[in-house]
Design brief:
alpha+beta; three-stranded mixed sheet
């Protein structure tokens, strides 16, 4: 985190564009008693930081051993916990991470690691397509134009009505897509 608080501003500003976040980690440069028991104060950035993590459905993970993540080369400065890891809420399989101060080489920051198991699964995947300039594509487009022309937008007086119209429209598009497109099974890799 620099003086302009980019580590807080970036995720807050991009929250709407980020889906299915599993992990958020890095040098957040925020000193706080919530994650560093040797630091006696709460940061005024603490709540904003937790709000951002919560908006991604993440929670602060705890290290397997509570040790500093940043090591000072100045004897007058404290070693700190400022590198943090946030993981998906209720992900018991990734409920904590390991701090590796022995792997920091020339850096003053320790490496953080978490084990995430990846299971091989056989997933049959179906793909629906329309061939360009085919009869099916023309039928799909014509039906879509017909539906758009018939849409009643005169009574859109609030956000909720608009959202309902959009949801209904999306459902209709999905139905006519599956009616006119062709299905094929993709091979497993």
């Amino acid at each position: 985190m620099d003086l302009s608080q980019l580590a807080l501003k970036y995720p807050k500003d991009t929250e709407i564009n980020m889906n299915d976040v599993l992990i958020m980690t890095g040098d957040f440069n925020i000193k706080d008693i919530s994650w560093d028991p040797d630091y006696p104060y709460h940061s005024h950035h603490n709540q904003a930081f937790f709000d951002i993590a919560d908006s991604f459905y993440l929670e602060l993970s705890r290290p397997t051993e509570q040790i500093p993540t940043r090591y000072s080369d100045n004897q007058w400065d404290l070693n700190l916990v400022i590198n943090l890891m946030f993981l998906r809420l209720k992900s018991l399989e990734y409920d904590n991470y390991t701090i590796h101060p022995d792997l920091r080489l020339t850096s003053d920051h320790a490496l953080l690691t978490v084990d995430i198991s990846i299971f091989k699964k056989q997933i049959q995947t179906r793909k629906y397509t329309l061939i360009k300039n085919s009869k099916e594509e023309n039928k799909f487009i014509n039906k879509l134009i017909e539906i758009i022309k018939e849409m009643n937008t005169a009574n859109i007086h609030n956000k909720f009505v608009l959202e309902q119209i959009i949801q209904d429209f999306a459902s209709i598009i999905e139905k006519i897509w599956y009616k006119h497109s062709k299905s094929s099974t993709l091979p497993n890799t």
